[in-house]
What we know:
alpha+beta; four-stranded antiparallel sheet; Phosphatase 2c, domain 1; 34% helix; three-stranded antiparallel sheet; 200 residues
Amino acid sequence: MASREILHKMKHDFWTETESAVKRAYIETDDKILEQALILGRGGSTAVTAILIDGQKLVVANVGDSRAVICENGKAKQLSIDHEPSKEKKSIEKRGGFVSNIPGDVPRVDGQLAVARAFGDKSLKMHLSSEPDVFEVEIDQHTEFLILASDGIWKVMSNQEAVDSIRQIKDAQAAAKHLIEDAISKKSKDDISCIVVKFQ
């Protein structure tokens, strides 16, 4: 199939079979990262993405513990699943891996990774998944904003605390900066990445 035809098919699939198109994009992204493992290194990454279709349908996908939280009428609603090893123990063991549970530490895949799904991590890949969970929600007049953030935010504040922290800030970039500073002030020791999307 010519590259133009492949691109046309991908666009068509996105509009007609959004969930499967997003899942395929995540798998293909993981494949590209693994191909570059010698250059990029052995590590990996979590991810959360959001796509707004026609200003009405929000499609959220994630692997790992990066999280999407939406604010509707001041209430926080989580739109993603944190992929914790303890929750996916059976599927990890089915792939030949194990989940450690050492007192004082979080559960880890093969005693190393604290998430059950991720991009990269070539040395653990046979025991990990890079297939995202995908959720669709309707955006309406009650939808105020969306937070997309890594676990450095969520380790130190609840979904509602994050929403309350920035609800009165009108500018999205200023809101994201405030949320990062709030997490740092709460002594977050994990990586912090954050995007805030405001809806009209």
